[in-house]
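Continuing from the previous page of notes. For each protein in this section, the sequence appears first, followed by its structure tokens. Read the first protein now.
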Amino acid sequence: MAIQEKLSLMIPGPTPVPEKVLQALGKHPIGHRSKDFQDLVKITTENLKWLHQTKNDVLTITGSGTAAMEAGIINTLSKGDKVICGENGKFGQRWVKVAKEFGLEVIKIDAEWGKPLNPEDFKKILEEDKQKEIKAVILTHSETSTGVINDLQMISTHIRNHKKALSIIDCVTSIGACSVPVDEWELDIVASGSQKGYMIPPGLSFISMSEKAWQASEDSNLPKFYLNLKSYRKSLLSNSNPYTPAVNLVFALDESLKMMREEGLENIFARHNRHKLAVSNAAKTLNLNLFADEEHLSPAVTAIATDDIDAEDFRKKIKNKFDILLAGGQDHLKGEIFRVGHLGYVNDRDIISVISAISNTLLDQNKITVQQAGEALVVASKHLK
């Protein structure tokens, strides 16, 4: 009898789910208006604030990270408002599309895919806005499509200095992977999704809102109903939800946040950094080129350029032989890169396994020597515990 397939997710989302969390998902649902569920909402909200390093409201929405980002935009802006959008990958591109869809006037700051956004570009445009017409700056912190992390700390400094503009930040693959100190950096709106660093299946998204963001919401005239955040804030006062939430995903969220608190923020961030260094340095040892700027590698995902190898065929070989799923390139990068996720519930063994699988596949194609394969594991191990 054949061994049942055991697929290992080494992609930047959905990420692996811990056994404890899977067990929590399997519980029988409870009433979402019951005291038991209200108690659960209270605990998870407190832990979400801990993860975001904030005293601001952190709201939970049944929907993807895109729902949270759209909510941040439509609850604080009005048709015709002028906004800056940073675009250096697929998700920055998405926020440009969303902003335009809602009739916002977009000033686009872009960078080549694989390169970080330049904070000086934001500084220049914001400083030139003497009339304070720019209402918000929208960008992605960790650009999942390219493996680049943007310098949010510096960009947020320039936004704060403007005084008027809100920061609306996609932190979908940075929350839970690296420090995003919402209060320290005075970030107004931060969106994230459950299937990433939270270590639970897709279906929930989270959005932190500063007092400045809530004040802006009083003047917003964009249409909203399900994503009207005032409804969520009002319900949260009684530890409730305005609409039926994904009850079992909240069970899972409670369990995953407990695990994260037990590990501790600094340990979580250090683990992700170790895995980033292990994968990126092993890739270089295997004569593979990093797609992202090496000074701005995301702690969540490493993008690798394959040059004369078809990346889609390479991914297929690894999945078929080793039951390890890697992510591919998006849009014009399809077939040009593959991406190794090291986000959420990933340990050192997973990192060694994926590097071994990549090495073995390169050996099969006569792209490296046995010595290089061994050296890659040695290099990776230096960054692991």
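Done with the first. The second protein uses the same format. Note its length before scrolling.
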Amino acid sequence: MIDQAKDAATVTDILDQAAKGINISIEDGIYLIKQQDPSIRLNIAQAADSLRQKQVGDTVTYVINRNINFTNICEQHCSFCAFRRDADEAGSFWLDNAQIIAKATEAVAIGATEICMQGGLNPQAKINDASLPFYLDLVREIKTNFPQLHLHAFSPQEIQFIAREDGLSYEQVLLALKEAGLGSMPGTAAEVLDDRVRKIICPEKINSATWLEIVSLAHRLGIFTTSTMLSGHIETHQEQIEHLAKLRSLQQTAVANHYPAKITEFIILPFVGQEAPAPIRQRVGRDQPDVAEVLHLTAVARIFLGNWIVNHQPSWVKIGLSGAKQALNCGCNDIGGTLMEEHITSMAGAQGGTNMTVATLRQAIADLHRPDQQRSTEYKYF
């Protein structure tokens, strides 16, 4: 009881600092995330919810978008990925431009404002033996047919892949994509920004420093990005908080240097293991996310990131709409997008679905007695 009272008092002190807009330390973040007592966790969730209300109000935002995974052929072999295939493997796919435009056409028909597009690292995806022209052609094809659509595409890993294949700098790749019509970049492939973890779960992926370098460069060049964390696998509590600290520092750099772009939102992507490769599935010992742990991390993330990254979004694909609604009471203020389709997480065995209508998202928000608001990719209201 004495230890519990001490923990409660220490947590209260940390939460009081956060409420005043003070950046809490990594040590304080670790202290919060390690709490197991249900009453203390409830206090943390309530503090996160209060901070959300103070920072962005009660309105819950959503975006009408379509996700397009243009290929699952990939040269890498991430230990958590059930999506990737070799080119000659059953289940591999590579969409042509006509198929991509057909999907974009369907999106426009439901009022979509955004196409989110990512794919595997396919060494054959080239025009005249070069990768960049292939990616530029994808961008131009969509923007020529649908200039009104915002194209949110290509992770930092894909940027590095293009640069490596063509012997270009990251800046050359980003500037060319931006000029062709790229609007913003998903902050995926971050997984956990700790190289101990990355060497185990994604040893072929870019390291933490390269991910941070490319995202910061994007901000300097005027390309907004999101930020993510793949949670609930082999990472420690300390590594979770240090990941958040790197994102917070990245945002502080963008603000301090008056970059024309920065991080727009933070999204927790809980590990789904049902169809993941056997070694990591067995190591984690869980097929679906532990929603209680996801919600606790959600709350701590809001508190730790403070005033630097104020938009927080759950993944309804990974934790279901019910879990996403709970997250909206634990620090989140955005419910994400309609997506229309999704392959990476669904192929891993996620049970949240791959398509949400606007009506379904709005009803979920109404169930919480909160107002809803359609937004753009960069969080401008319609």
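What the second structure shows: The domain at 60-374 is CATH 3.20.20.70 (TIM Barrel). The longest strand covers residues 224-231. We return to this in next week's lecture.
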